[in-house]
Amino acid sequence: MTVGLQFPDGFVWGAATAAYQIEGAARDEGRGPSIWDTFSRTPGKVYAGHTGDVACDHYHRYPDDVRLMADLGLRAYRFSISWPRVQPDGSGPVNPRGLDFYDRLVDELIGRGIDPIVTLYHWDLPQTLEDRGGWTSRDTASWFAEYAAAAYARLGDRVSTWTTLNEPWCSAYLGYASGIHAPGRQDPAAAFASVHHLLLGHGLAARALRAAGAETVGITLNPAAVLPADPESAADAEAVRVVDGLSNRIFLEPILASGYPSDVLEHMRRFTDLAFIQDGDEKAIAAAIDLLGVNYYSPTYVAGRPGAPGGGPAHPGTEGILFLPPAGPLTEMGWQIEPAGLTALLERLGRDYPTTPLYITENGAAFDDKPGADGQVADANRIAYLDGHLRAVHTAIERGVDVRGYLVWSLMDNFEWAEGYRKRFGIIHVDYQTQRRTPKDSALWYRDVIARNGLPS
Ligand code: GBH
Asked: What is the ipTM of this complex?
């Protein structure tokens, strides 16, 4: 038997998306190509050759989509701005027609009482910048800050919450080390240079936003909930330290404390001379921020095992560490369902960074859901996933962690990166043939959660 739970007054309930995953309109109004246009056209990179050319056609259907958000009672909507719409070549002249779209979207949201939360970079780097080295190049950090200022100049009078990057872990390690994401490079040294330039870009952009008058500035990470296979084992605790350093402290400490931890610097030095770290960089990266966005899907269990292969190319230098295969109930992505991992992660962040308010900027699950004969989508598995994770958030709040909001991933089914359209994370179903939207049972359930600011018993 479960009990009803109340969330704090003013808790922010919402949903999240990202530009390349939903907008389509890949060539409209002067948008330049991004690394995901290139990558999705490269044979073998994305399931069945899917691309974001049309996606959910949100670019043309945004008024209907905002109406659906309002029907669910969303208080906030997290979306990303496409850098190559704003600057088709990544730097230099701004394309006002690209910003017009976000201008209209923001007005539509505000008109329906939904607070816009902007992500400036959700992985769609202008291809021109990749051609000049992408995130391995220091210039990209400065160009990112220029782009941030241009977006703020147009929307800052109405948007109060600005986040710089979404999950730089993915941009760096999946983009430049494992290559399963754009731009598809496989070079650990390039990945570490990218980590640094992403962090520097974040710091420079955060400072530019603040100087321009932004009220609330932050960043979204996907901190790994790294847990030991055996809590009693010293070898497993050591494995946790290494993976936590490589996945979490490498981002958290420069952003929220004062620079890279020495063990992380040592780890990186096995692949690079670190010449990309210049005087003053760590100070720039530590620009003050007002919130940390946390994306959580699944925990990572590790064990210290001599001879173990490590976590693969996305985890450079983790030989001797066993990454346990996901166990127990899994989502359609093959990811382990474990809400307790979220509580543990939030408690850790609350303990180590007690003055930074946290928002869950993504949490959700892919399941193989289809409309039934009645046209409805009965996704009890997703309701159970969301219910369990909201209880996990509530537990962390009860234990004193400052969690201010929860944004479900995702508002609607969309382009799931290397998985194409075959994985569905939405609480709204999208029929890609007709672009018909159908709120799933989970959407109707979420509407009730929002209305009562809590969970039913
Ligand atoms: C988020 O990425 C993205 O922000 C969002 O755009 C995306 O649609 C959503 O999640 C769903 O995927 O990779 O096998 O080592 C989440 C990416 C998923 C990266 C879990 C780390 C760990 C398992 N993260 N992953 S694995």
From this structure: 0.94
